[in-house]
Amino acid sequence: MLVWIVFAAVGLLALFFRNPHFFQDVQFVREKLKRRSRILKYMQTNYSILDRFIDAEKEHPHKPFILFGDETFTYRDAEELSNKAARVFLQSGLLKQGDTVALFLGNEPVFLWLWLGLVKIGCSAALLNCNIRSKSLLHCFKCSGARTLVAAEELQDAVDEVLPVLLEQQVTVFILTDRCRTADVQSFKDKMSQASSEPLSKDLRSHLTLRSPAAYIYTSGTTGFPKAAAISHAKLWQVASFPSLVGMNSDDVIYISLPLYHTTGFLGFASAIDRGITLALRSKFSVSQFWNDCRKYDVTVIQYIGEIMRYLCNTPKKPNDRSHKVRLAVGNGIRADVWRDFISRFGNVKIREFYGATEGNFGLINYCGKIGAVGRDSFLHRRYFPHAVIKFDVETETPLRDSYGLCIEAAKGEPGLLVSEISLMAPFSGYMGDLQQSEKKRLHDVRRKGDLYFNTGDLLRIEEDNFIYFQDRVGDTFRWKGENVATTEVADVITMVDCIKEANVYGVEVPGHEGRAGMAAINLTEGLRFDSAAVFKHVENVLPAYARPRFLRIKSSLDVTGTFKHLKMKLVAEGFNPNQITDPIYFLDEKDKSYVPLTVDKFNFITSGQIKM
Fold it and tell me: Which of 149, 375, 408, 526 could form a disulfide with 391 if both were Cys (CB 3.0 to 4.6 A apart)?
């Protein structure tokens, strides 16, 4: 009753102030509260995503669950195959209740059978990025606490590289093949084909609660080694029920080409179970096959990250661009210009941009469809899901505080750090085996003494119309000439020049100067040469002087993570020294009104202070 009184009171105020999005704001908060209530109910009965899958299999056993290539797996198929996988683990005698198994494979149906099978026997999975190798692979495996590794057949070379270390630590290694070429590893598929598909006793997972870990998903590793974020069964419910907030229903077919080892891909899998729908899975994103797949599988919902949408828009136009059934696109990171291009070219697809983090306890959704925004700020949302955008010093990477030691809320239009309250309803589980990094994400005394908030590590801004926009990631933003430079904004601007296909912007130290000078590693558009004068003219017209990249480094390709996020650490460390970098480097020359080649002499003049910046 109290909730509805609050809604009514706020409604009268909104009508008074003529908020055109009031009813959308109310509806969004109402749906989030219903989702919270639903998860609380599930927590009381320990009803997990696995339980939902088992119920869905009973409701429609012959409904297609996974479409992969030319194969179709029904809900009954998935139930039986996951039972087989579970029995292989049980018969190995290696696992006990609560153990973790590391999965090292790409997008294929067996990934899903393995996860379901592990939960059926009361265990969890660490989802390793299938692109990591050597030290990074060992680091991620160690973080998980696993004593068993299951790897794809095509990744056996990567496993062999670290196998001596794994064997020394008495780790059991399975390869998803019928026969292994190495005596020190075991095959898995032959054992799975011989195992029984009969259901397993629920007693095997009787110890699990919704606070138990369902999986460990790793951060992208753009700023160092990936960190393992614990995803509880309750958090998985939150992730799974998220797409329903933007209108996904039980008749949809969702297309996943993003990695299942990443939150975005796993979200699609979990939400398919929640809604009881069909999932069309691709081993890896293909720009040339994307729309063909959508037509082949009658896809109605697609998942995206910003780069995917840009790749699709950069393909040559075709007469059948609008010949598809896709009605909804759910994802994050799409640029405003790409957003406009996408709906103009591919039709009236509802784009629902969201904001969230793998380890985070809070999320935003742009339920109004405002191009460029990630969500809206409203009294109701803050009331029931406490969060704030606070003033932040990007140089010291610390929040600004008042004389009482509390954080200061950022003004409208001012970029600030997004923080969200940590509570029983919005917990932060931390990183597996990394207490120091976990504590860095906890922020004390934010709005009152003794409170505790999650530090998202992201800078956002709230505009006068209460729409929220992503600004940059902490650590990516840098200061130059006393001003904050947002790398994402600069990258968006310089990629508007025809000759620049993509850009990775970062700050580099210059001797004798405070802060960091802007530098961009760029990849040229195929068939076009670098037009130094045109680039200079564009950045001069659009960017303030402090935000203009001082250096441009032309690369044949830009290094990215498995989810297409640019890697910056190595570029920052390499700086702009032409003695150590073989790529062409250009320097912003304001006298010549152009970007000019950075010679060794010019480099020496800059570092000695003879050329002023």
Answer: 408
